[in-house]
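Intended use. Records such as the Glucose-1-phosphate adenylyltransferase entry shown here are meant for training and evaluating sequence-to-structure methods. They are not intended to support clinical decisions.
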Amino acid sequence: MTPVPQRLSNRSMAFILAGGRGSRLHELTDNRAKPAVYFGGKTRIIDFALSNALNSGIRKMAIATQYKAHSLIRHCQRGWNFFRAERNEYLDILPASQRVDEHHWYEGTADAVYQNIDIVDSYDIDYVVILAGDHIYKMDYEVMIREHVETGADVTVGCLTVKREEATAFGVMAVDTSGRITDFVEKPKDPPAIPGSPEQALVSMGIYVFRWKFLRQLLMEDAADTGSKHDFGGDIIPTVVKNGKAVAHRFEDSCVRHRADAVAYWRDVGTVDAFWKANIDLTGFDPELDLWDRNWPIWTYSETSPPAKFVHNEESRRGLALSSLVSGGCIISGTEVRDSLLFTGVHSNSWSVLTEAVVLPYVSVGRNARLTKVVIDRGVQIPEGLVVGEDPIDDAQWFRVTPDGVTLITQSMLNRRAEQA
């Protein structure tokens, strides 16, 4: 009998870069980093990278945080505290803590790893998977690690296949017919095409696999380079492309699908429009992202809450939800909810209507409110009779209205509106 090879994930760690604000999400990241932003009714964005690592068999993880990290750290402490050191499992949270000197915070993505070299050394691993903590997708990292070893690459870069005209917003990989990266171009006006596919290009996902000893030496050299920005995409990857062997790994080869013909789902929910759409897409009949797949679950902190409750059954005062996701602890009291996603603990009151609404946890909606195509931040108290989504000019006086017509509502916006009323 041929022995089954050991999973390479057993000799790997995941290093998640989760320090960015995500400024294009505007007020949604005023009090939390982008990876800590809520998504999908129960989860946070960072749960996808962490769940992918866990489901791939990786049991050693580190999360580098920086911008307004309290919400993110608290979430990880509550939802990801099941790792046991006696089983050789670890999840370390690594806030920027001036480990090099008292003036030296994380200066770039590569510097975040460099400042924690001693901690990674202590894991006694062979391979490190560098991950961005702010994207929505399902991926088996074991497939990518194995490709890295089999090709003898110095770095393997996770890549999305996109139309060439869409690639201008990304870092683009020029590759040869074997998949070796021959050039890395940041946001090019004329992106290089995939050999044999002139209308498509490969763009970086911000996912990298290295042998740790190789990356360790590279980080030491980069830290000593005063001209470097100490960034993976800007410095480390171009250096390996030039002086070593960099290989592109196509996401479709390791994407986890709930059925064979499903699309390779990946989203950067980095704008309010993209955030709203990705959440609303989940309310569809057969969403491209399957949160119900028990074979590849998305782990998270699950609050203890009662079931959702719907009350009143009168004309124009009926508690109902159609084509919507309603989380635990919600009370839909005489409110009509359509094509919407409600997070934990949302309470809505009589004669109100929510249409295409993404409502974050513990929002209260007053009576007779009509809210259409909105994102409502956590804990907001919607006053009685508020109408949003029907007059964009009036909405823009008080709230943030996006280019695609989504209205973002926060408590400070409502307070300012009330003061000037």
